[in-house]
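We modelled the chain as a single entity of 100 amino acids. Its sequence is:
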Amino acid sequence: MPRVAIHEAVTKILDADTIDARQKMWQLSWICFSDDQERPRNLDGKWDDLPSPLQSQILDTCETAFDSCDPTPIPEGSSFSSTILYEAWCFRLAAPPSGA
């Protein structure tokens, strides 16, 4: 698998017209907010390596997803989709402060 710079990966997601806000939020969270063991193995760079304007655009996109989508339901039992983790990581970092 070829190496991909984080800024290229997130720009591709942000510019994609074929995926909805929720899908963008999940993918951006996986790339930007997950820990090293969960991130794509072919990715070079981390959240802190991104320029501030791009970080702001990512956070705005995630906030849009939170505003326009219902939360992903958490199923009964001990197993669940990894997208629930992506959404949780994103919410932890990108959600507007309580009462905003």
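As a brief sanity check on the tokenised model: Residues 41 and 73 are 28 Å apart (CA to CA). The two ends are 42 Å apart (CA to CA).
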